[in-house]
Amino acid sequence: MGIKLFLVDDHEVVRRGLKDLIESDPDIKVIGEAATAQEAIDKIPSAAPDIAVLDVRLPDGSGVEVCREVRAKSPEIYCLMLTSFSDDEALFSSIMAGASGYLLKQVRGSELVQAIKKVAKGESLLDPALIKKVMDRIRSDVDIDERIARLTAQERTILKLIAEGKSNRQIASDMFLSEKTVKNYVSNILGKMGFSRRTEAAVYAVKNIKDKL
Distance between CA 152 and CA 96 in Å, rounded? Predict the structure, then answer.
């Protein structure tokens, strides 16, 4: 069959256009589609594509979240993020989630097809310098206190946003996660830090380590 591809975008017209474009190459076949994050998470593992092309922004979550779930369950499936927006945080989150590439929808059709072929071979489209920057950010654990040291990089980012007074909904939007996922992160953060309320964590972060997160 050649390269088996699963397509995720919440707009039917966009999916149809992408499918026609992608399948103009005889080596690639679209074997499945989804319009929401949950639908994608449910369908992709059983469809067993070689690669999933994921829209970053979805109605009930994000392609980043889908990438994280898919890669955790089926690491043999590669993920290529496709978005209309250039966003550093989304790019960072995509790398953290295990994406092999991150492209803007303004990309030329021939470039998208070539990108799909490269990712399907296991190649990365990400700049090595960018990956190093992300890893440096993850390792920046110096001068943080014991409570913060217990948190993952993702949890520290969420704690910083809590300290800025953002709600779960705002954090979900900023980080391309679902509100349910953010709520789970907040519960983990409070448990690790030994707090019972998010306001306690926010006050602690503002007073002690907000500038180090």
Answer: 11
